[in-house]
Amino acid sequence: MSALMRWNPLSRTSFASREQEFHEIAVRAVDGYDNFGDPSYLEGLRRLLYSYDHEAHLHQVGKLTLIYQTVGLLASRLRTERWFEWRPKSANIAIERPIVITGLIRTGSTALQYLMGANPDMQCLQYWLALHPQPRPPRAMWDAATDFQHARIELDMMYRAGKKKMLEAIHYMTAERPDESGRVLGQNFSDDRFEVVSTVPTYSEWYMNTVHHATYARHKRVMQLIGSYEPDKRWLFKYPVHMRNLDALLDTYPDACIIWTHRDPADVLASYVSLCAHFRSLFEKDVDRPLIAIELKEIWARAVENGMRLRKGREHQFHDMYFNDFLADPIGEAAKAYRHFDQPFSERAKQALTRWRQAHKPGEFGTHNYARDDYGQSTAQVHERYAAYLDQFPRVLEKNTRSAS
Fold this sequence. Notes:
This protein has 19 helices and five strands. It is mostly helical. It has one domain: 3-Layer(aba) Sandwich (Rossmann fold), CATH 3.40.50. It has a five-stranded parallel sheet with strand order 2-3-1-4-5. Helix 1 (19-29) packs across helix 3 (60-86), helix 2 (41-54) runs antiparallel to helix 10 and helix 11 (213-226) crosses helix 12 (246-252).
């Protein structure tokens, strides 16, 4: 990556004009391996580079960070393709009835994933393997692995760049814990992470109005690779953004078992605008919270409406979990989901979840403080846009103790 250090953030050279250079740097980072696989990823990449050049409000550190991120994703794609070549038979592994946690963002899904991810009878995507896909080695080997150590360093750098431990309180991650699917989807440059950290309307319009079949086909291929040492273990996936791409997910995993997490959209929006504003400040100047709120309100209203449409006729594949219920009885709610989807909940698994719960209390990394009135949207305005969702799931408006998620 030494070539990146020669990039001048004050240069007027465009992102788009350096597309080939980014690829070449990635190839050098992977010892000359140059098979990027299915070229469909280029459409998202090129729209993204256009948006960086013409629409984003990047400051100097943001420019450098996005260059590093772009080349890093290309290099990760190359390393993953090389693993596909090394382990071609992993493509034949069946992934049957994966349990998928999704729904609105900021609904307790991360806490649920960490809890259910403690179950030794299931497998999930760890952060370091999302960053560096490869067959998952035994746990005793992780600490000595270079890729594991690299993941720890990256997380440390990200949190050091955050403000007064705010990012840890908003969304805490470690290299060994379960992770979302975004880093894997990002290898195809079709993921909402890009619009979270920067202003990219051209990219966003394409992303919202495209069914990302190739991206989810790659997701499955990566999961087959990572789980190839334990092919019979059932998968647990988690990513709220799967709700935005439920068409592609269900086409790829037609027997997927969906845990749909629910929460009052007004609370969701307030929390998510805060998260996005903090992340975006690491890349852009003059962060516009009210504009972010308007965009996110529409994006996620469309997502849940699409989810409501797609679950018709396949209700048996969905299990609803409400935020307040999960706060009151996390292990009990996990057990209900297991029963609904025929996943045995052994005494060993129950003890593992209990130990996790006892060791990790809510708010252990700080409190995410935010207010509903700092982003220009009233509760009534949010509820009006989500009227169809609230009509189908009225329990989301039930109020108990407010969480710091």
